[in-house]
From TrEMBL:
Its main location: cytoplasm. Coiled coil: none annotated. This is ENTH domain-containing protein. It comes from the Eukaryota. GO terms for cellular component: clathrin-coated pit; clathrin-coated vesicle; Golgi apparatus; ribonucleoprotein complex; ribosome. The keyword Membrane applies. Component of the small ribosomal subunit. Mature ribosomes consist of a small (40S) and a large (60S) subunit. The 40S subunit contains about 33 different proteins and 1 molecule of RNA (18S). The 60S subunit contains about 49 different proteins and 3 molecules of RNA (25S, 5.8S and 5S).
Length: 390
């Protein structure tokens, strides 16, 4: 059965290439030669060079080539063809020209179809062939890996190339903490995807993908190490939410250590893992360092105290400025102000009620402030300052 499947694949390749040659479709012919049905050998460097050279030109030429490539990837049911198409996409992401990479950055595009979503890929024909089932698992994993690679490149603002950037540390040090966390999270997702790699089976096409994954890890490890090192310097000044997010990223990275060491022996000697553990411990201390009532979480709430003078504060209370009386464990009223929770103590509540500044609305209670001309205020509803009453 396997020999018959191989023979059918050869016939298909010959027929498709002959048709493209007769129609003088140079790009299509190069793509067919690089993505044959042969399940044992990857596309040669000569075929890849010829294919990418045919697509190098204007943006219209690059867009047409990528459309042709993605259509072949999504139309095929043969695992070897799908893997070779993904190899071409990976080659563009790592070593392609600027125009090709620029056009590739729209795949997957937010808000549209994810052309690299092959999680349900199955070979619908010759299901008794064990090689096709093994390659199908590699199609699903490699498509996810290429997708993570593109998403990480989009978050970083550049494609992860084979050579390191000389200004990486300088640019990372100038980033805002929120942007730095976004970049780190995308890189952590890429590392987690690498850890899900299937076991190699000695297939030549699979071994080519394994080599590419090892090269990707070398690049990603360098980018992660720079950003974790930057957070080592910033961790003591992080806000509560930022410290929590950093701790979660470090924990996810730490859980990847054993898997990466099992797949890549060189990963055992990396200083990255010690750096990750150090930053994780510092982030944990930053989160739990205050155990007092005025803890880090409470300090993060945006609390604007209502005073007698409102010259530099909003003159009108919004719909979020109301008192909430929770039931159950806590009997203390809570005031929601600008999406923040603060405790209104009983003495303050009594004083506020005596000033007629609390007005029930059927569900909650609104807190009235001092605004508007005195003549327009209702009797008993005026909240006057000491200066006005003097």
């Amino acid at each position: 059965m396997a020999k018959l499947t191989h023979l059918i694949g050869i016939i298909k390749d010959k027929a498709s290439q002959s048709k493209a040659a007769l129609l003088s479709q140079r790009t299509t012919l190069s793509l067919l030669r690089a993505t044959t049905h042969d399940s044992s050998t990857p596309p040669t460097r000569n075929h890849l060079h010829t294919l990418l050279s045919s697509a190098d030109g204007s943006r219209a030429t690059a867009a047409a080539f990528l459309e042709l490539l993605i259509d072949r990837l999504n139309a095929t049911h043969h695992a070897a063809v799908a893997l070779k198409c993904l190899l071409v996409v990976h080659h563009i992401a790592r070593r392609g020209t600027f125009i090709l990479q620029d056009q590739l950055s729209v795949y997957p595009s937010s808000g549209g179809r994810n052309h690299l979503s092959l999680s349900n890929f199955r070979r619908r024909r010759s299901t008794s062939d064990p090689t096709s089932w093994q390659l199908s698992s590699w199609v699903r994993w490699f498509a996810t890996h290429v997708e993570h690679l593109l998403c990480a490149s989009r978050a970083l603002g550049f494609f992860l190339g084979p050579t390191p950037r000389s200004d990486t540390e300088e640019k990372v040090s100038a980033l805002a903490t929120a942007d730095l966390l976004t970049e780190l999270e995308s890189l952590v997702a890429l590392v987690e995807g690498l850890c899900e790699r299937p076991e190699p089976n000695g297939n030549g096409l699979v071994e080519e993908i394994v080599g590419l994954a090892r090269g990707d890890w070398a690049v990603v490890e360098r980018e992660v190490r720079v950003r974790v090192g930057e957070f080592k310097e910033r961790v003591e000044g992080l806000k509560f939410g930022e410290a929590v997010e950093l701790f979660c990223c470090m924990k996810r990275l730490e859980e990847c250590e054993d898997k990466m060491v099992g797949m890549i022996e060189e990963a055992r000697e990396l200083v990255l893992w010690d750096l990750v553990r150090e930053v994780k411990d510092k982030a944990r201390f930053q989160v739990y360092r205050d155990d007092e009532p005025n803890s880090k979480l409470r300090k993060q709430t945006t609390m604007h105290l209502l005073t007698h003078s409102h010259r530099f504060s909003p003159t009108l209370l919004t719909a979020r400025d109301f008192l909430r009386f929770p039931s159950g464990r806590d009997n203390k009223p809570m005031m929601i102000y600008k999406c923040s929770f603060i405790t209104l103590r009983s003495p303050n509540l009594v004083v506020t009620k005596s000033e007629n500044r609390i007005m029930p609305d059927g569900v909650n209670a609104k807190l009235l402030g001092c605004h508007g001309p005195l003549a327009n205020r209702q009797p008993g509803r005026a909240f006057l300052s000491n200066g006005a009453t003097a």
